[in-house]
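Researcher: Let's do a round of design. I'm pasting the structure tokens now; please hold your answer until I've finished.
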């Protein structure tokens, strides 16, 4: 794996995997400035079934709609995750029902579980004593950090009803207050640091 780089996961199914175009580069800039990472500021794009995913310690996936993994995609993703990779999926709204079905192909016997606020991912660089912050309001539901573990290592993080990516985008895109953007970026930095170190 490249020591420190992040790629966007391009998945099948017609969902807008390319949404939040400014989010990841802003998060990378924040991490390079604040937690001493040296990530290439232009995130790459990789397809789920490609061997290229193994070059990246962290894959980021987002969107609003349908997700589809072929059997080959699912096997490739499973091999990536159990060999040390990390996948962060940020639900941009409406992705959850499709995603949960497809994750069953990747880990047939594993359920998404809620990650407790004492987990290192909420404490590794910045402290989030209440767990995942709420960034963008959709349905009035509380934000949830759901995960899949391989042995004791968190290999997949699904951030739901939070919309971290909206907070990472250029300020004028969603007009979020600066303190909300900072929360989103700091939580993102925790995810990056955790993925790179575990």
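Researcher: That's everything. Go ahead.
Model: Designed sequence:
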């Amino acid at each position: 794996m490249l020591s420190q780089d992040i790629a966007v996961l391009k998945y099948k199914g017609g969902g807008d995997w390319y949404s939040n175009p400014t989010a990841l580069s802003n998060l990378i800039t924040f991490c390079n400035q604040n937690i001493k990472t040296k990530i290439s500021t232009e995130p790459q794009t990789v397809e789920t079934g490609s061997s290229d995913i193994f070059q990246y310690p962290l894959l980021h996936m987002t969107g609003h709609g349908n997700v589809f993994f072929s059997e080959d995609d699912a096997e490739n993703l499973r091999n990536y995750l159990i060999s040390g990779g990390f996948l962060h999926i940020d639900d941009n709204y409406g992705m959850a029902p499709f995603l949960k079905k497809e994750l069953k192909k990747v880990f047939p016997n594993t359920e998404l579980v809620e990650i407790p606020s004492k987990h290192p991912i909420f404490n590794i660089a910045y402290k989030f004593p209440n767990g995942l912050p709420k960034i963008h309001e959709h349905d009035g539901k509380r934000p949830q950090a759901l995960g899949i573990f391989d042995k004791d290592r968190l290999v997949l993080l699904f951030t739901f009803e939070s919309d971290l990516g909206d907070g990472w985008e250029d300020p004028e895109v969603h007009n979020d207050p600066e303190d909300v953007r900072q929360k989103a970026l700091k939580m993102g930095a925790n995810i990056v640091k955790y993925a790179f170190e575990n």
